[in-house]
Amino acid sequence: MIDRSNIDRPKLNRPKLDRQGIDGQAFRKIKLIYRAAAHTVGSRVQRSRRGRAVLAGTRAIARSFGRVLHQLWLEVTGFTFLAIAGIGALAGMREYGKYQSGHAAGPGRLVLAVCFTASFIWFGVSSFWRVKKRAKRADFP
Q: Under 8 Å CB-to-CB from 130, ≥6 apart: which residues?
């Protein structure tokens, strides 16, 4: 074993940094200032007709994007679950082959693969059902 304690290592002159975070009182003050500024800006926007129109438009756009992003999320998760179920189905077929040829100790792994595949198929299909149900319920085409 090599003794590395005697090896001369170069000394780096790094400045000491104070890495403490914001304490509770400073955080409360920052939060209070932020709330006061938001309230002031919000009240001025609500008073003007143009401000209310911009706010209403922003809300409508955000709602529309939120719906689309939620639909996309459900579809992506549904596809992911179905893809994982496909992997489980391949494992189940492999385990079934082992079980039929007598190389498996018992049906435990086969049953586990079937249960895994069935549950992930359910998760995937139910995610797509939720997308379809939300599309019927939406107030715009």
A: 74
The token duo for 83 is: 């893809």
Which residue carries 């149900």 as its tokens? 133
pLDDT tens for 49-93 read 888 888 889 999 999 999 999 999 999 999 999 999 999 999 999
Q: Please, what sign has the CA dihedral across residues 131, 135, 139, 140?
A: positive
**Domains of the chain, residue spans:** 67-137
| Dihedral (CA of 64, 69, 71, 72) sign | positive
* Nearest-angstrom CA–CA distance, 15 and 102: 68
113 within 8 A of 91, measured Cβ to Cβ: yes
The tens digit of pLDDT for each residue in 12-57 reads 666 665 555 667 788 888 888 888 888 887 787 778 888 888 888 9
Cα 60 from Cα 68, distance rounded (Å):
12
